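Input:
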Amino acid sequence: MLLKEIVMKKMWLTALGLFAVLSGYAQAQDEVAIKKIFDTELTQGKVYSLLEYLTTSIGPRLSGSPGAAAGVEWGRHAMEMEGLDSVWLQPVMVPHWVRGQKEIARIINSKKMGTVDVNVCALGGSIGTGPSGVVGNVIEVTSFDDLKRLGTKNITGKLVFFNRPMDPTFIHTFHAYGAAVDQRVQGASQAAKYGATGVIVRSMSLGNEDYPHTGSVVYDTTVTKIPAVAISTKHADLLSKLLKEDKGVQFYIETHSEILDDVPSFNVVGEIKGSEYADEIILVGGHLDSWDLAQGAQDDGAGCVQSLEVLRLLNTIGYKPKRTIRAVLFMNEENGLRGALEYARLAGLKKEKHIAAIESDDGGFTPRGFSMEATPDIRTKVKSWANLLEPYGLTEFNGEGGGADVGPLKPQGATIFEFLPDSQRYFRYHHTKEDTFDKVDKRELELGAASMTALVYLIDRYGLK
Amino acid sequence: MLLKEIVMKKMWLTALGLFAVLSGYAQAQDEVAIKKIFDTELTQGKVYSLLEYLTTSIGPRLSGSPGAAAGVEWGRHAMEMEGLDSVWLQPVMVPHWVRGQKEIARIINSKKMGTVDVNVCALGGSIGTGPSGVVGNVIEVTSFDDLKRLGTKNITGKLVFFNRPMDPTFIHTFHAYGAAVDQRVQGASQAAKYGATGVIVRSMSLGNEDYPHTGSVVYDTTVTKIPAVAISTKHADLLSKLLKEDKGVQFYIETHSEILDDVPSFNVVGEIKGSEYADEIILVGGHLDSWDLAQGAQDDGAGCVQSLEVLRLLNTIGYKPKRTIRAVLFMNEENGLRGALEYARLAGLKKEKHIAAIESDDGGFTPRGFSMEATPDIRTKVKSWANLLEPYGLTEFNGEGGGADVGPLKPQGATIFEFLPDSQRYFRYHHTKEDTFDKVDKRELELGAASMTALVYLIDRYGLK
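Output:
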């Protein structure tokens, strides 16, 4: 071996050793930091008490409602109390739909049972029937293809009953939701094309329940708007059974919902300024609005308080981020996405550079991982952190998709993420009166907040490129 | 290349190709079978309705109680209804401890608060104070080392208050339990050595609760038995606070528990005979007994019905196991382990060959994986199945440990496993009046049953060697 080669080899080995030491050191430092994040949250976390206030003192927060306005004020105040570098409101006009007095629905003319009161609720955004209600024969379908096959002659003047259940064999329950929700969102306009006078949609649920699940309906502007209600899964099964025995069964619905003029509202934004790359933003967020039937605890009070907690937790452990860490409580995810669209529009105008945007909108359950919309290189980089996150139960990094509110930032180059908690119980509560504070477990919620903080820490420290 | 070499290489490549095809085929076949297991359970599972009956119609099942006897009859009947090849009862004598009339406990002599009623329960196996109760000054400790340091002069004639909380920074909550439960199990005898007249133990919980958690106390035969109660975590915090302000605070406990003579009971056993290696047994089990305060839904009704469901599910999908698959509902896990010891003793006498024994006793929550006590080779083999199990959320295979009831089979060569569900909510319910049917989620329970079935399927198909 020549002397030069020996020297080179020695240098190379030294460099390699140095790298190993440094990389080992960085790994150990990250382990310590992430353990501190989790330990701090599990011993001094405030996320659960924040949620208690938001859900039990403020309550439902439908866009345009007094509750939503109270939620905005709460969010601003909560951020100011944490001593962030800046806190501000972003004005945005939002839809204003009101449910009005409680819905009435009955199965009538059943040879077997006569008249049966059933549990329904108007779908969000639906027009009301008014006090005279809508009554008619019912035709049960499970798909838009069924409508096509039946055609105008079989549908005109009837109420269409969409009764395709969510498929329980999907392990991730959001996939079952995705495969069934077309009935709720587009069912009314699809049925109206064939002359239906109203639609009754099986609640989006995997359970056998007494209560209905609301959620948005989107009307096609080219067809007549018809009233749309969700029916509890128990009553959907009953209606279907009665229809099989007796085609003469009729249905009465009376809803008093109204679509009013848009009203002003706000996104709530707060941030810790980055010390080195202040122009690079890592966003964490949830949506502040909820449906009107419940407290919006899992959907999405949990995501809001977890996002606040990320910033509080970084402050608490004394971590000074290199990049700007921003929490956003988006308004109007449920029925318009107006807050998210306005946020992205302004970000574009201001040429803000969001390198990552992480939403928590799948509930405050035990963490399983993160899904993302990322280039293969970025996904590989995120997955290289898996060994740091696995001790905390975070093992799923292969899923596609970011949250709805962070979606509009993707075209601006942001890698978008969604926090993935365990999905098994989510659809017991989703969009129902059952979505209340007592359904959230303190430790599960805390672990989610710490998981998001850990990801933010790693992105801040190493970037995504 | 010589002709011989060419031929050899060709043969080798053919073999390799054949292996790849076969191995690909086996993999695909396993994927299909495991999907069928999960699909069947999630659409036609009976595990939830089995649990409903066991918990709401039968209820608490403390060893020696009428409920335990009813549980045995239920278990036998449930197995017989499934058309197993054999169902039988294994007689075993079990301890018979009774709580008697409800416990009374008061903080007295508090300068600040006077007398305060507090929530306690006698620990299982504890002697009672009888109607005259025990009253005394209280000395708070957090460890047995504290007792040693304080010594007889500071402890004699007093009630010792063990108040070391479960550590919330453990991510797996059973580790926090393991690090705190010495106070409950051995605290009474440890304190009695220094002349204590009774012990008050902080409930084994991570929450801030009104209700106490029972659980077993084990007396050291060489020291005097003294009464032992668990106090709710809220009242433990109150007592600790009052003691800090005022050393004169006293405590009164009155318990009516009694240790009666052992009584006869049974393990319930059922099996499907193996078609090829009938002498090789794969055991699945849970424990049929519960504490007396609740329905024993998560602990361990869930494990019992999941074990039954494994056999039912294999029958339902038409799988004919090569090995014998046996379900065991063990009696007396909570306060004696007599059922498990008798089962293992008989297995030894009969020279039965248990290749694997899987217990479910960590609740019916969302599956995370399996822990095991296995040789490195066997663990490697089990982990080679991870790709088949990950789609169902089963990602944890590194943990050490099998269930308490299957532990006695290990010296006979069984690889012992414990089903690992998510642990975050378990200690809200454990050994309390809150451990009721409504705390169990249907899908979570079903996924657990299917996970156990999938592991049994893989062990049956490929063995563990």
